[in-house]
Amino acid sequence: MPSITDVRGISTIAYGFMASKALFAALNLDLFSRLGGGPKSLDALAAETGIASTRLLALLTACVSVGLLENAPGGYANAPASAAYLVRSAPAYFGDYYRLQIDRQLYPALTRLDDALRGERVDFYGLMEDAVEAERFSAAQDAGSRGPARVLAKLVDLDGCATLLDVGGGTGAFSVALCRRYPALRATILDFPNVRPLAERAIAAAGLGDRITFVGGDALRTTWPAFQDVVVPSYLLSAIAATNGDRLLAQAFRVLRPGGRLIVHDFMVEDDRGGPASAALWLLAAIVMDPEAPSLTPGSVTTVMTRHGLTEVAVQDVIPGITKAVIGRKPTSAPA
């Protein structure tokens, strides 16, 4: 990204949290869904939301100013992207990911970033011990993972694979997408026990209850099911200490069948560490989850995978500018 040359560029970064809070407030009022059927006036929206028109006007104006809403004949209307991703009835609805995980969990955690940079442990994942917070986190992560999961399912060739281990798989967005793409595939999700009820509901809703099972446990402490054709840790290496990530990849190698594939999907900056910005900011936020979390690059992940014996390692963009998949194979000559 070009270097900033003007103070206005610095101000854009400094004030960026104000725009995000406007987005979150609008989502919490369900404004975008309320406009899903067409434009509405200020008075109509004030009556629906119960927010005084004087205060709601400030929020609507802010949303128009950052491009989330448009002034239209008859009142306010959704911008094209808002209509596609922030209306609950839209097929690609993404709002709960922003509303539940980013606003209510990650945003408050980032107020401790200075502490985390000094090495203090914030215990972000302690929330997984609370059933309500675990369900909120998992529901939001599911909303944020469906799109990348569908992309990954199109990028990889799993013909002939019968077993998949989805490590830290949450409610199974990746398992569902891959099982739908490959009818012969059966998946096991390994994640915290509190995630199980939400995962089982999501799996049942997908009609895959006979092909996807759930194992409750901590991926760093629980014994993994063996004889896997595919192991997928997604958004996991960036959220744990580098030493734990090393252990995790060693464990993945052990449970793979000879010829099996390890697919590491995560936030990664380019090897020259010049960006992209979205991936770099996510990796910075990961320090709040674990002060020893690594700043991943395709090269660093490839090096660790190769050290543990994986071969034919290749890199694929999944969400351009944000995530990549690094894919390796266990040699067919390796012991099962």
Structure overview:
This protein is α/β, with parallel strands linked by helices. Helices cover 46% and strands 17% of the residues. The chain folds into two domains: 7-93, Winged helix-like DNA-binding domain superfamily/Winged helix DNA-binding domain (Arc Repressor Mutant, subunit A, Orthogonal Bundle), CATH 1.10.10; 106-329, 3-Layer(aba) Sandwich (Rossmann fold). The chain is built from 14 helices and nine strands. Helix 2 (16-28) crosses helix 7, helix 4 crosses helix 5 (53-65) and helix 7 packs across helix 9 (131-155). It starts with 6 loop residues before the first helix and ends in a 7-residue tail after the last strand. The model has no long low-confidence stretch (mean pLDDT 93).
User: Helix tally?
Assistant: 14
Strand content: 15-25%
- What is the assigned CATH homologous superfamily of the largest domain? Vaccinia Virus protein VP39
Shape: globular
The secondary-structure class comes to: alpha/beta
Give the fraction of residues assigned to helices: 40-55%
SSE diagram, text form:
Blueprint (H helix, E strand, L loop, with lengths): L6 H8 L1 H13 L2 H4 L7 H8 L3 H13 L3 E4 L2 E4 L1 H6 L9 H15 L3 H5 L13 H25 L7 E5 L5 H9 L4 E6 L4 H10 L6 E5 L11 E6 L8 H14 E12 L9 H13 L8 H10 L3 E9 L3 E7 L7
Parallel strand pairs: 3-4, 3-6, 4-5, 6-7
Antiparallel strand pairs: 1-2, 7-9, 8-9
